[in-house]
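Collaborator request log, item 7. Partner lab (contact: R.S.) asked for a structural prediction of RNA methyltransferase to inform their binding assays.
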Amino acid sequence: MAKKKSREIEEETKKGAQNDVSITNGDSESHEKQSKKKKKHREKERERKNDTLSLQNEMPTVSIAVPGSIIDNTQSFELATRLAGQIARAATIFRIDEVVVFDNKSTSEDDSTDVVENDTDEGETGAAFLIRILSYLETPQYLRKGLFPKHNSLRFVGLLPPLDAPHHLRKHEWASYREGITLKNQDQGSIGTLVDVGLSKNVMIDQVIQPGRRVTVAMGTNRNLDAGAPRKIVPSSRPREDGMYWGYKVRYASNISSVFKNCPYKEGYDYRMGTSEHGLVIKSSELNLPSFRHLLIAFGGLAGLEECIEEDNDFKGKNVREAFDLYLNTCPHQGSRTIRTEEAIFISLQYFLEPINRVSSKYEH
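Returned to partner:
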């Protein structure tokens, strides 16, 4: 009996040990996933900080903030895609540096890009949809396949007119900079990384970077892709410092106050303007903007910016005019009772073009 009992105890001990191993393996897998997620987040933060530092000495920037709710009011995927395409075209035509897509979540503090990455084909929010289309259209065509996996939201993008931005270069065109995607190197001991920059051959850069990353490559003057020193990667803001327009960044904000609080520029937006039919009426030629480093122009949704401010806990008890340095009506005497947000963006950016250029010209001289 004692031997039998001893064997039973032994078997129980073995089972317990096996269970411990499986639990440990589960914990290990979970820890590994968390580590990868943290590493990815750290890399994104490092990129953002590098871009921020590079922006310190460059020309003034202009950002626009748009509510994701405008997508929720469309009747079909095709119409939603066309709306997003109009916003992307407006941002490119008027050389906008940053497009902020905000929700009306009054309490959320989560402004991570997971709003796009974690949304499924079936349950995508208006904000996530808009961010995905804007990001896709801003990306040069030759990089899209490598950077954007197939997604239901992208099924109508082929109907949209191209942005034809300066960084959307053709295969035969040479430029000082090109956007590229890092590739998996065949040689494990390589001291550089191959990058697809949309030319007939890939180029080598002087850093080892994991595959699948978008980078800006300084191409130099040597057009021989088979020889010469490796190319260098530079901050994505560098072409702009050289006077080129190089597309827009896309950012998510959980509410209107997060648009301001989580500004990627170190000193924040130093001048903030809101647009509304209830705003002040000033002629574009008579609007004198102060010198600014980072200008923000905000647009409302169906119920305007007034509703966005009312629903935000950070602006409790405050008037919409208190949230902005200037609150303007850029299209007085409108014939239609309503101006859609995508229309308001075109109208307003044309209205602001001359006042903004007057400020920018001060930095050029």
